């Protein structure tokens, strides 16, 4: 089956990974201040949460975040189709299926990385979503599960799923060990095999292959971009967010923060906190936590982080907290 839409692979050139408890809409608003071009992803949202829960709470986002993709967790084709349609109606530019999360909670729901053992089921899920939306349906996955390492396994998985209409695969270049490792350890202990992602691109030149996993420097990023269509960054992008200001130039675009200082970005976040509190009652610490890496590596960063992390200041307006963080006002 051929995809019913055509999207330039450039869309996936650089992206920030979906990260549970991290990449909420406040985080994505902050990241968009730093990069105009980066593709941003939601946290994983389960089909159950959307079908039985508060849809607006899970799907509301700021229009400034675009392009932004919705990542879904689930394994029932009908439920995924329902939720994909909701995501498209809410304005998301892509629907992504999680086939990479190794947590036991996700396994109990029979989705995440354990789905890699059932490529035909994943194909049914993808087709069900493709049939009801006009935005790209993509899959994020590992290169294998448990300690059996076989390139043929991931190659066959992509071959089967691509036939259902998926043309973009985000490859976390590690196995997922479903037993014996925590989700945290699964991000570090299974060995990285970037060469397998490169090989997938050679074997499936018609597909968009995006590499994810363990990338921490611009030099590494550039090396991978010479081999695959895109790179997805996770923890390093979150913990050192100013790095995003380099990304637009790497794809030949003018940087979002080219004329901005860290202080100017912080001020824009303070303004955003005020608007969010007025509109939805959101407390500023919920939003400020995402920018704690903004002054990473700079003199005074520890004091600045400590102030913005101080919940005893939560009754103060964000502008006053910013003044304290910069030493212009005492607590």
From TrEMBL:
Catalysis performed (reactions): 5,6-dihydrouridine(20) in tRNA + NAD(+) = uridine(20) in tRNA + NADH + H(+); 5,6-dihydrouridine(20a) in tRNA + NADP(+) = uridine(20a) in tRNA + NADPH + H(+); 5,6-dihydrouridine(20) in tRNA + NADP(+) = uridine(20) in tRNA + NADPH + H(+); 5,6-dihydrouridine(20a) in tRNA + NAD(+) = uridine(20a) in tRNA + NADH + H(+)
EC number from the UniProt entry: 1.3.1.91
GO molecular function: flavin adenine dinucleotide binding; FMN binding; tRNA binding; tRNA-dihydrouridine20 synthase activity; tRNA-dihydrouridine20a synthase activity
Keywords of the record: Flavoprotein, FMN, NADP, Nucleotide-binding, Oxidoreductase, RNA-binding, tRNA processing, tRNA-binding
DUS-like FMN-binding domain: residues covered: 16-314
Stated role: Catalyzes the synthesis of 5,6-dihydrouridine (D), a modified base found in the D-loop of most tRNAs, via the reduction of the C5-C6 double bond in target uridines. Specifically modifies U20 and U20a in tRNAs.
Record PANTHER family: FMN-LINKED OXIDOREDUCTASES SUPERFAMILY PROTEIN (PTHR42907:SF1)
Family: Belongs to the Dus family. DusA subfamily.
Protein name: tRNA-dihydrouridine(20/20a) synthase
Species of the source: Rhodoferax fermentans
Gene this chain is encoded by: dusA
């Amino acid at each position: 089956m051929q995809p019913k839409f055509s999207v330039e692979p450039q869309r996936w050139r650089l992206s920030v990974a979906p990260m549970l408890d991290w990449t909420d809409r406040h985080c994505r608003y902050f990241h968009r201040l730093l990069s105009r071009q980066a593709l941003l992803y939601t946290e994983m949202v389960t089909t159950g949460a959307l079908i039985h829960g508060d849809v607006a709470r899970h799907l509301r986002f700021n229009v400034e975040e675009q392009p932004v993709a919705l990542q879904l967790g689930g394994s029932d084709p009908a439920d995924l189709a329902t939720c994909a349609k909701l995501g498209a109606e809410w304005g998301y530019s892509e629907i992504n299926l999680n086939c990479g999360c190794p947590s036991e909670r996700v396994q109990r729901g029979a989705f995440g990385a354990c789905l890699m053992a059932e490529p035909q089921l994943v194909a049914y899920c993808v087709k069900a979503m493709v049939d009801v939306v006009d935005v790209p349906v993509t899959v994020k996955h590992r290169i294998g599960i448990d300690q059996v390492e076989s390139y043929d396994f991931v190659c066959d998985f992509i071959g089967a799923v691509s036939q259902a209409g998926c043309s973009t695969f985000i490859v976390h270049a590690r196995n997922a060990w479903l037993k014996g490792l925590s989700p945290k350890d699964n991000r570090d202990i299974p060995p990285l095999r970037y060469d397998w992602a490169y090989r997938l691109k050679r074997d499936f030149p018609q597909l968009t292959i995006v590499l994810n996993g363990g990338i921490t420097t611009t030099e590494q990023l550039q090396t991978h971009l010479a081999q695959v269509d895109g790179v997805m960054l996770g923890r390093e992008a979150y913990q050192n967010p100013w790095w995003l200001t380099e990304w637009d130039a790497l794809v030949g675009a003018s940087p979002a923060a080219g004329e901005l200082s860290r202080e100017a970005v912080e001020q824009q976040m303070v303004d955003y906190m005020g608007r969010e509190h007025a509109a939805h009652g959101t407390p500023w610490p919920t939003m400020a936590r995402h920018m704690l890496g903004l002054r990473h590596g700079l003199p005074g960063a520890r004091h600045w982080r400590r102030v913005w992390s101080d919940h005893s200041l939560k009754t103060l307006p964000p502008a006053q907290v910013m003044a304290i963080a910069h030493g212009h006002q005492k607590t």
